[in-house]
Amino acid sequence: MDHRYYNYYEANAADISLEDITSSEQNKQILRRLRDDDLGWHDHITLGREGRFYLTERCELLLIREGDDLGWLGYFIGRSVKLQGLEIWHLNLPENEGWEQQIHAFLDGVARNQSIRRICAIELGEYESTAFLRALGNWSQLEELVYSRNILDSNGCSVLGTLLESGACKLKELLLYNNNIGDDGVAALASRLRSIAPSLKTLGLSWNSIGNDGLSALVAALESCTSLEELDLSDNDFSLATAGLASLSDWLQTAVLNLNELSLRYCAINDEGLQALTEGAVNHCKGLNLSENDSITALGLRYLSTSLQCDSCRLESLFIGSINIGDDGAEVLARGLIGNKVLRCLELRDDEGDI
Fold this sequence. Notes:
Layout: H1 6-12, H2 25-36, E1 44-49, E2 60-64, H3 70-79, E3 85-89, H4 99-110, E4 118-122, H5 126-135, E5 144-148, H6 154-166, E6 173-175, H7 182-190, E7 202-204, H8 212-222, E8 230-232, H9 242-254, E9 261-263, H10 271-284, E10 287-289, H11 298-308, E11 317-319, H12 326-337, E12 345-347
Parallel strand pairs: 1-2, 1-3, 3-4, 4-5, 5-6, 6-7, 7-8, 8-9, 9-10, 10-11, 11-12
Helix pairs in contact: 3-4, 4-5, 6-7, 7-8, 8-9, 9-10, 10-11, 11-12
């Protein structure tokens, strides 16, 4: 396949037969609705691969097979003024002749869309992932970016960070789940967050191999995130991150915001880390998730209990499931709840349902 520029699609759009560029009747009908901008109540589209399961309650599902022309698909997506959301799953094409041109043609078309508010890119191939990141700068209207289970090394974080720094997107939600970013990648990304910081409400960085250095670098960047409501750092390794957790607590105490939700589930937080975190988290968060941090003992819970007794406690929901608190821990928690008039939800359940 020779590289086709946008002018090619513009010149041939009126005459192209949808049957010739799609692999199924369903895909043909989706392209027809995109072409005519007649999406009905389906204003989200999911692109996926056959043999996978996708949740499609609110969106159209287009399964890419042999016979689907990605260039034309991207062109019609780019022209739509009603499409609000696009999910791209498993866009890792076989490396046969013309596959790079297919990717470029698809993203060149999609990048021209000015109505999409939410984009998800999940399990892309290495080449496709890089091409996607470079196309992001065209979506000035984008409000939510979900980028999950992709290859995002420090170089990729730098590319994404450069985009954020440019101010091209004013994101409200940035969810970078399970990309194995690491400390260096987080540092590269965090230093560029300031351009979108005033608009950012939700930041998700779970499953990214973040440790103490990465957490400390992130907290330094969070000072500009004055509208942040949710922060998800679950499934990282904070077993040696007492200093980072202390800086997170300090930030919470000095920031002009109050988080609705702070999730630190399954982060290997120990008693020392919990002590460093507790004051800021309990007094400046509505919701705190510490579930599955099974290194926490009754000693760590004592620090938490003391903060729960303070008049400054703001915590309304506390999740500490799958922690072996034992009788001593339960007694410590109970003392902390005496006189507490704020906490409304306390979850202690473990995986076996013994609590």
